[in-house]
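B., you asked whether I could sanity-check this one before it goes into the benchmark set. Here's the sequence:
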Amino acid sequence: MAAVAASLNASEGRCKQYADEVEQLRADINSKVQEIDRLQTKMRADEEVHSAKMTAAANRAASLEDALKKAEQKQKETQAMLTKDADERLSSIHEEYKVKLQVLREEHAKELDELQRTLRDENRLLTDRSKDAQGVLNANIKS
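And here's what the prediction gave me:
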């Protein structure tokens, strides 16, 4: 009888130990799930920010293109209004608009280059973060 009681006590001890281990594993799993949820939420937020920046850059690029077209249209209208009697004035105005148009093109090209560079940097950062998050997710899943 004493052997049975000792065996029962040992079994109860192991059961308690196993129950504690199961609870610890559950807590670890819940912690990992929360970390995964947090990372996924951050990844979605980063993607939304990146998307908004890309949209803003595209809108700015379209605006710059419109400004360039308006400048070119203004140059054409100015040329159409001039007459043969104002050849010298036409030449002067034409040169002035060429310079302004070149300056606009250079300014717009610089802005477009910077926007593209920023987009590439943001895209690279988002890709790096995504890879990091995927690595953490994979590590958490393997754990």
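One thing to flag: Residues 84 and 90 are 9 Å apart (CA to CA). Otherwise nothing jumped out at me.
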